[in-house]
Amino acid sequence: MHVPDGFINAPVSAAAGAVAAAAVAVSLRGARRELAGAGAGGAAGAERTAPLAGLVAAFIFAVQMLNFPVAAGTSGHLLGGALAAILVGPYTGVLCVSVVLLMQGVLFADGGLTALGVNITDMAIVTTVVAYGLFRGLVKVLPRRRRSITVASFTAALISVPAAAVAFTAMYALGGTADVPIGKVFTAMVGVHVLIGIGEAAITALTVGAVIAVRPDLVHGARGLAKPLELRTSPLAAPAGEPAPAAAPAAAPAPAAPRRSTRRVWLAGLAAALVCAGGISYYASASPDGLEKVAHDQGIDAKTRDHAAKDSPLADYSVKDITNARLAGGLAGVIGVGATLAVGTGVFVVLRRRRNDGGGQPDAGDRRPSESV
Amino acid sequence: MGAGHAHKLYRHGHSPVHALPAHCKIAAVFCFVLVVVSTPREAVWAFGLYALLIAAAAAAARIPAGFLLKRLLIEVPFVAFALLMPFVAEGPRTEVLGMSLSASGLWGAWNILAKGTLGVAASVLLAATTELRELLLGLQRLRMPPLLVQIASFMIRYGDVITDEMRRMRIARLSRGFEARGIRHWGVLAKSAGALFIRSYERGERVHLAMVSRGYTGTMPRLAETTATRTQWTRAAALPLAALAVCLLGWTL
Q: Model-level pTM?
């Protein structure tokens, strides 16, 4: 769904353009790292980026033309954000889908020039980032097998398409030029895109499965999956009385055990959060919380304005236009947990990476400003 | 591989519009679309004047009207959305042809149709009069990051190669008696897509090695530094300036 000119008003388009430009700039740096390759080292990153990212963009462009028949003459095609993120990594994914959108806008007039920022933010950034974040989380949680990569890509693609619809609705709510009520837009967009997402999920999972069967090393999302090369000495060569072979298998499971336990903790925590948010939130007290009550009693809130996000589709912790209170609250809770988890994981990953950088190279802080010049 | 790869939308010609430098044209089209988008939707006549301006530019570029109109079909999906709008929008209702329609919805539909169509027409005109390579170099001259321009140019250059590869796979499937009829056949198609990805990525690696062996270090050499003269800028600015005048009239009247 390429947004044409004049659909979203100028300020929101400009803001989306700024977001898109920043994201593309970040992705240009990140893609160098992702495409640097295993053997070549960091220095080869810049010169590998252009050919590889260009060819991946051409692949996405081509695969969007591949028709998947659904039934009775109708057919769908892949959007490719989730697929790109899983196959080549999030930065390269954002970059490639953005380039495809740019070329579609400039060459084929598909999507307006002034709406380019809206299109890139919606279809390149939101889809790819949501898909990849979800994918990484699931790969961490699920057992380390090839099958779980397929399952994770299915789920990631399934969620990424409605997420783009939600992002579109948010931009429409901020700067839509037609006054169709937000609730209707939300229901229609998300409803349609959940259906599209199912198709996208099936195709993405099948495609990722096909690639992983042939070249598992090419799938960025499955990089940690390959077992490190293990040198096995023949038992005949080793002297029988040596204690070393007995010690080695005993030592091997030791590092594996805590990893599995953290995964179990992750899984349990996620499940508990989802159950709390989805089910128990219905039974939570509907009366205002302490601060709100105090403010009301003291008359402090006489002049407070409503929260800026009052009209958001998730305002007051329930999804608009879903009349069933239990369902609405639960759904809002689940979406909220997902969003919080994504943001929290992102902050955590950034912090940990920074700390690792600082620990590894004491002079990293001195060098970084010169890099950004 | 450098020359002779014209895209389907390009229409070879020697008109004054073809002769303008690409970055002038890109800037002009972008400003024109910007002006159109910021015009109040109630000024219906302004959009008629914009359409006349586009028609004049097309005539100067010697682009036949049929070509332009055929390319406008790309926005059909959004036309459907716009046509739906008067039925779902809220606000006071009016009677049109015996149907009760929302007045604001009608305005919204008109807004999207007029601005979207003008934007598409301007983009089509740009693509029809500018060669692809020129277009990319023009974007680079307008300060788009060189790496992004390189990625885009690789995508355009190899887009046809990859699409052809996909077509050959389809013919191979057909010649083995496969015909995709429903969801049951998605597995086969997805395997083709996976194979296509592997082939594209491996081709990228080969292209990279071939370029490195020819002295590529990550930047493309600029062959000719074309700069636009003042007259060329003035000519290119004629379209957005005329549109700006119309827009200002639309705001004041």
A: 0.73
